Model the fold of this input.
Amino acid sequence: MLELRRLRYFVTVADELHFGRAALRLRIAQPPLTRHIAALEARLGIRLFERSTRTVCLTPEGELFLQQARGVISAVGEAEATARKIAHGAIGRIVIGYASSIPLSNAFSEMIRNTSRSLPEVELAFREVSTASQRQQLIDGSLDIGFGWGAPNLPAHGLQSLVSSRDSLVVAVPSRSAFAGRSSLGFCELAGESFVTFPSAYGSALNTALEDLCAHSGIIPRLGPTASQMTTLVSLVAAERGVAVVPDYTATLQRPGVVYVPLAEPYVLEQTVSWRTPLGSRCLERFVELARTLAAPLPAPAAGPEWRLRG
Done:
């Protein structure tokens, strides 16, 4: 196998067409340089240079080989640069799972925006995954990062999380509903309403929050149609198929026919970012470092019950 060092020596001599100047550039003595070129020629079985007492020039074979040698050296340089970027976490791939409504939140947008600015060569791949499903996919390596609701730290499974934001629940009601003009409403007032929810198999944390709110208020929920996308769920409310419990930032959808009414008794969801330890790459480490910076400090939660996803 050819030595990369000898290829570099050859290219330098070809650039200078003078062994003395090439030796100075390479910071080696001229006799060893001459021996290395001779050894390279012997290895290749061709003569690379024509030498005289006054001139050095490339042979036709040397001219052809020079193109290949430059290509090899360039490829090695690119590989070394890539390796350095990998070591610093500047390139790589991160698979991110997110619960349906979370991309609407400022916390999610800010974290992805800052990651893209800080790590522009890191590929971010996105998958919609319910909070309940994220945990197992983080454990088995299908996901690198999960954006969900109230996911706890699970040291036994190597999972960790941090709170990225705290978001209050509101009720999405049809604009022609009697509740639409209210500044707030008590959850117990919804006893006669149908609730638009995510499918039970989806494992939505919002469904579980609805169950908790119903249990706390002593009502049995009347379940209406289901939807697996937040935009569809809100559209069903606009179609007067029921009401829905959603995070307050869902109001950014600005869907005609829907009004968002706060709960009289604030109910807070903790939005979390979760990952598996040990982190598998430097770019993942840098993502978590950014997440920690952006997530802290958080304002104190509002008074009232605080939602944490049940394990």
Q: What stands out?
A: DSSP finds nine helices and twelve strands in the chain. The two ends are 57 Å apart (CA to CA). The mean pLDDT is 89.
